[in-house]
Amino acid sequence: MTRPSWDEYFIEMTDTVAKRATCDRGRSGSVIVRENRILTTGYVGSPPGLPHCDEVGHLMKQVMDEDGKVRSHCMRTIHAEQNAICQAARHGISLAGATLYCTMEPCRVCAMLIISVGIRRVVAKRRYHAAQETREMFAQAGIQLDVIEDVLESYENQAPMPQGVLSATPKS
């Protein structure tokens, strides 16, 4: 057995944290560390006290990507990165200078939160289908993004929804 690097160690932990997720569409996890010490973790799930997808089903909305693809997203849950950041806020833990480990590249909203709280590095296990804006924002903000596997993350019911009436559209 070979001793894992710190990145390997923490990225493996994201898979364990993800087992607590309550939405089968994207059971992802996140671990935030500083100086190789865990500060907080998060997984995909509903806010405290609200029903979970695993209990009552998904709250699906359609969104359109810039390329015109219509995708279906579950809006009942908070992303793993958001939950980890919220846990830090709830317990008064500064994330300035920290590293965030996650199962896939963060979405745009998570990227904005990561930038806002002062996280300096993000290590993702795999690629995310809509992470171009994230990559651009991280580059502008000076946040290092490392992706372990150059593979697109796939998850339950990820296929785009058929074209039709949209619940949300991108701004022009």
Task: Give an overview in words.
The structure is a single chain. The protein is of the alpha/beta class and 172 residues long. Helices cover 28% and strands 23% of the residues. The chain has five helices and seven strands, in the order αββαββαβαβαβ. A five-stranded mixed β-sheet has the order 2-1-5-6-7, with helices on both faces. Strands 3-4 form a two-stranded antiparallel sheet. β5 (99-104), α4 (108-117) and β6 form a beta-alpha-beta unit. The protein is globular and about 40 Å long. It starts with 5 loop residues before the first helix and ends in a 25-residue tail after the last strand. Mean pLDDT is 87; it is low at 157-172.
Topology:
Elements lengths: L5 H13 L10 E6 L2 E7 L9 H4 L3 E5 L5 E5 L5 H11 L8 E6 L3 H10 L3 E6 L5 H10 L2 E4 L25
Parallel strand pairs: 5-6, 6-7
Antiparallel strand pairs: 1-2, 1-5, 3-4
Helix pairs in contact: 4-5
